[in-house]
Amino acid sequence: xxxxxxxxxxxxxxxxxxRSAARDADDEIRLHLQxxxxxxxxxxxxxxxxRDEAERRFGEVEDERREFRNAARRRxxxxxxxxxxxxxxxxLRYSFRTLRRDGGFTAFAVAIVALGIGASATVFSLVDGxxxxxxxxxxPSRLVxxxxxxxxxxxxxxxxxxxxxxxxxxxQSLADMAGYYxxxxxxxxxxxxxxxxxxxxxVPVTCNFIPFLGVSLELGRSFSADxxxxxxxxxxxxxxxxxxxxxxxxxxxxxxxxTLNEQPVTVIGVVPASxxxxxxxxxxxxxxxxxxxxxxxxxxxxxxSLATIGRLKPGVSIERADAELVGLGRQLTEEFRDRNxxxxxxxxxxxxxxxxxxxxxxxxxxxxxxxxxxxxxxxASLQFARMTARGRELAVRLxxxxxxxxxxxxxxxxxxxLVAGGALLGIAIAFIVTRYVSHLRAFDIPLLSRVTVNIAAxxxxxxxxxxxxxxVGVVPAWRSPSDPNDAMKDGTRGATRGRTHARMRSALxxxxxxxxxxxxxxxxxxxxxxxxxxDADLGFNPSRLARLRVDPGTRxxxxxxxxxxxxxxxxxxxxxPGVTAASLSDMLPFTGDxxxxxxxxxxxxxxxxxxxxxxxxxxxDYFRAMGIPIRAGRDFGDTETPDSPAVVIVNESxxxxxxxxxxxxxxxxxxxxxxVTVIGVVxxxxHGALESPFSGEVYFxxxxxxxxxxxxxxRTTLPLAQLGTAARTALAPVxxxxxxxxxxxxxxxIDHVASSRRFVVMLLGGFAxxxxxxxxxxxxxxxxxxxxxxxxxxxxRLxxxxxTSVVRGSIMRGTLGLxxxxxxxxxxxxxxxxxxxxxxxxxxxxxxxxxxVGASGSLLLxxxxxxxxxxxxxxxxxxxxVLRDG
Amino acid sequence: xxxxxxxxxxxxxxxxxxKALCWTPMHGFxxxxxxEARSSGALDIRDSALxxxxxxxxxxxxxxxxxxxxxxxxxARYYRITKSGRARLAAETTLWxxxxxxxxxxxxxxxxxx
Lengths: 886, 114
Hints:
The complex is a heterodimer.
Chain A: H1 7-16, H2 21-42, H3 47-58, H4 61-101, H5 103-132, E1 143-146, E2 148-149, E3 156-157, E4 159-160, H6 161-170, E5 174-181, E6 189-193, E7 196-200, E8 202-205, H7 209-212, E9 219-220, E10 235-238, H8 240-247, E11 257-260, E12 263-270, H9 277-281, E13 289-292, H10 297-300, E14 304-312, H11 318-335, E15 347-348, H12 349-354, H13 358-389, H14 391-399, H15 404-438, H16 455-478, H17 484-492, H18 496-535, E16 545-550, H19 559-574, E17 579-585, E18 595-597, E19 612-618, H20 622-626, E20 630-633, E21 647-651, H21 652-658, E22 668-671, E23 674-682, E24 697-701, E25 710-716, H22 720-731, E26 744-745, H23 746-753, H24 755-789, H25 791-799, H26 804-833, H27 849-875, H28 879-885
Parallel strand pairs in A: 8-13, 10-12, 19-24, 21-23
Antiparallel strand pairs in A: 1-14, 1-15, 2-3, 4-14, 5-14, 6-7, 6-11, 9-12, 10-13, 11-12, 16-25, 16-26, 17-25, 18-19, 20-23, 21-24, 22-23
Helix pairs in contact in A: 2-3, 2-4, 4-15, 5-13, 5-15, 5-16, 6-11, 13-16, 13-18, 13-24, 14-17, 15-16, 18-24, 18-26, 18-27, 24-27, 25-28, 26-27
Chain B: E1 6-7, H1 12-23, E2 26-27, H2 28-38, E3 43-44, H3 47-59, E4 63-69, E5 75-81, H4 83-108
Parallel strand pairs in B: 1-3
Antiparallel strand pairs in B: 2-5, 4-5
Helix pairs in contact in B: 1-4, 2-3
């Protein structure tokens, strides 16, 4: 298309002959008819005949005219589109050039937009995945969690099987009930295949559990009724993860027999990946396969064991179901005096699963919204500053005949290019970070694994950025001076219009400071809570404490065989140089919440106020290894055997609970029909959450009975890797399986317990730092720009005898003035917003003065630093140079 | 127009117009005259059909047009062939020659079995 007229000339031509498309069409037809008529007359026709003949040859003139006009209009549209493209291309070229020239500004603007969009999209995706999106079950809004409220009125206990059966049979509100055995132990099943063994975690579930949730199986079927009876053939349903990892996603797995704990078990089905039991019910813990849990009398005798969920009948509210079940619980407790007390409540399952995280995530959502706001404010403030600086350039272009529309187009293109760059980067950040976070296993946040980038959130964040881009692209250009004369003058001297701009930018920076202040207060409150939580007295000393899961590969035929095995393991580990103490436990702190009734001998308790104690089965020297002080009596020793009298050690809380008026040593606790004698009292240990108070604990000796899962704990001066090597050599002859597992620091367990809190603190802290940085940059840009604008004025002042410290002081005063106004607004904002966070706080009140003072201090400091550089620059202004150049 | 004038084969008009413009930019009536002169009036072309061909070609970027003035100082729309127009014409011409030759060969050959 080389023959085409260049766009500039075309535009010029159109300017000269501003005709409509329709008129053009008419002209073309008229000329044709006229020339044809002239030709025919020249050939000898009469004018009238010639005219008729010309029209005949042309065709139906009116129809053709319409055709012509349409063609002309289409042509016009094409031309306009092409012109637009050309203009845009030119604007883009110009924008890239300007932005390249202003490299620092460009990089900064792109970076803040990218971080803003990336952070908001990620956090909103989290909130959506964990809190907002319905759970991955059929009709999740009708699913309810049914705890059995403990004696203290708050603890959530489980259901006894017999009660479960009766409630399921008698209630009117629920369409169905299901449950899982809440005390399944991690790694309780040894899978043997090809001579290798692997520890897996079985979750015993009620027969209807999988169909109850509306999960359709990937392969095979769920349990049938006759498979859920005690003593029936062993069957299992695999989770997707185990099916892939252990069985290579074998589609023919259904019907095959696998070996678990040296018993044949038939695989009858595989649940799909979308059914992630662990991530909903036991976040952070594994669940590998499902086995049926019989609702038998036998299982009922094990006590409150079933975690229970229900499905409301259509039209039944949670409140109504709750009222009914509360009544039913009372009735059943009365009717069956040999059973445990039943105090069922009905709560939304959704709330049960994410309730703990809802406020935290909402705080984060708010924080990220605030960050996005600061990003927008900052971008606006920077663009304003640049536009003012470019006032002269724009004025010159106006003077040279550029229309205001063209100028606006140009600045708009420029700011959209910036935002587009930031958005692209931000989208990439959102995808990468969301993927990373959802794959984190360190946090026990439910449903985290299903979090994916929420496109709506991404679009919304991008829209906010684009909108900001449009506003900051259009407004400054629109406000640029109408009279170029003014602008030229204004550019050289700080005149009144410059001042309105400055005021607008001051307002933007003040808002930034205010928002940043609120964020800093919020994050410092959470941080201080977090520190308080971590500072909580654990009751044991986790440093230099390592744990190893001992998998004895085989099952023991009797207690004696097991005792011999474990004593051997302990002996060998203790012999390792660098190991100062070693012991065993079947349930380390924070790894389970098994509790039994612990009535003191000779006392009767009301049925619903039975003392409870958390049960730990331990090896010898446990207290020294853990760093738990022995307050009275003695530790277990080799004197404890299966045949010696049963003894226990209690913690101080337990001792106080049972025998407030006397020493616990020598007292007895009833266990079923037997009694156990207290031989020692030890310090309290935190076992559930870091925030929860101490409660009763009772330690049993492994020599007198133990469970399937045992942890070896070692206090050592060795690094973990070295300990691992040494332990492998030491244990190889007796416990080959144990050597396959990795040593983990006890601190990991504590970190895991605090993980969700740390997660929130980390994110909020990140946002607050980002906000502080942005506020600092905003202040710096504003003050620095102001100094540049006032160079002349400053020069004159200096020439007239003002000292440099006076100049510096006046600029610093201005800076801190802005910061103080911003902080005052921030305090007001914080007083409105922060009280809503009080549920997340631990050990601090929302009005914690330290947080407010700290936030003010850090903001003032940052503001001072941001103002210092420009103030120094102002003080260094050389009057003679400025006055000569001006 | 004489009785023996030939109906135009569909699609050929576009090629004739491109051919006309190969020489120099022309306005619509000039193109009509050029085609009439070259065909000695043997082709029956409606004037409007020629303009439709021009619009078609313009939309496909085979020709472009701009306003200019005739020798008699009248405002006229001048059409000009583009680079892609020339390429198109060359391709169409080759095709036409092969087509015409094949058909002519068949029609003029002696009757008989293939």
